[in-house]
Amino acid sequence: MSLGASKSLLNEANRELFAQWEEVRQSWRDAKAAEFDKDYLAELPQAVATATRIIEEIDLLLSKIHADCD
Q: Which of 12, 43, 59, 68 has a Cα at 20 to 30 A from 50?
């Protein structure tokens, strides 16, 4: 799998997770739901954004390496 495909897959999985979470939150509204959100999901968008940026940097670096080898 290419890095671009990996980045797309990661972003799509993140979108799907939060869409499903919004659906679950319609019926799960207690303190445990808020705790789950805070403990597991609150920081996830920033982590995905960071991972996406790093994937882009690695892709650029690999492109430069391939160009230097040719």
A: 68
